[in-house]
Amino acid sequence: MKLSAYNLSMADGGDLIVYNTLTGALVVINQDADAVREAIEHRDISRLPSTFWPGFHDLGVIVDADYDEQAVIRVRNLTGRTQNELILSVMTTLRCNFRCSYCFQKRCQKRLTKTVESSIMSMLLEKIPKLDRLSIDWYGGEPLLERATLFRLNSWIAELCKRHDTEYIVTVTTNGYLLDKEMIDYLSKFKVGHLQITLDGPPETHNLSRKLTSGGKTFATILANICRARGAGLPVSIRVNVWRPNASKVADLYGILEANGLKNQVAVLAKPVLSSDANPCALLCLEPAEASSVIMQTYMDAANDGWIVLPYADALQGHEFCIVDSVGQFIIDPSGSLYKCGENFDASEKVGALTKSGNLLLDEPKWRSWISKDPFANDECVRCQFLPICMGGCSMKRKWKPTESPCVELKHVKDDFLRVLRRSEENREGG
What we know:
This protein is α/β, with parallel strands linked by helices.
């Protein structure tokens, strides 16, 4: 028997928190905590009181001497990324009704043409009968500016999937301003994974960074639309883009959401703003460790107020860091060009194009550079205890932003992460 290589631990008051990043087991120990801590820190099972052995073995905190944990991670990574699934982000338009000050996209008036729409349909006629699952994120620009296209194409796809018994999951990445009753009623007919909507903190910070093209405020309308969507049972994920202008105010958003009946009814995901060629803003961006600290303190404040702020402890594990790591994932722009990463949306980074007949014509070297990522080719990743969660980190940052840390933000604030995870799990169990 041996201690797992993926045990994180830290003292929390008089308790010891132990979290295994491979199995998702979270344990809070209040007896013999010092002995357990020393055993885990030194990975010396002989220091661990024998009373802990059976339970720890069931949780994966202890494993058999010949158990190869890295092999488990390799298999999870490879099989997950090559599932019989097609994951598409379909850009209905590159137009937007907002002028967000940090947007990474260049503004233009392109819309999904009937020719490209026909190509998408031809591709799916061939692909869907062979798939286990199709996931489509309606994306932009602002996808809801082209609702007629969305309604028409989405309904056709749903019917085709139903005919071939292929699971169909719809998501929408939208600024939320046009998410009116008509759109909500329509989306309610389908299996919706989530609506991702951004609120950059409370009104005073959100309305500075996420304005209408006319300069008008947007917070109140978006919040009302989120409430309406949740009232209809649609899952909503709120993204908060964190940078210096709103870093001290992000936590205030939770109180506003709670006052509107949304406590633990929406997921809130905070992510750091990255500077881009379209809108350079490096001076306003937080350093990686600083951003991680701000985000985790925001989560801690919310967790102390009863919020479930992180995915469940045993749901943080994955087979990839991001969907771009999956073989079957593509972004289709309004012209039919194919991309992998939405934050590296530049003509020079096309990985292919959709032909008129619906074939995926790939630029093989560029495409392979995305999907051939091997976390085990990086010595830092191999040694890292966050590998089962991070799976090698962000490919985009490794390729094009070498000054940015590609690692999962949790790595920079391990102790704070464990405290927040404990509080969040206690809130979940208490709820």
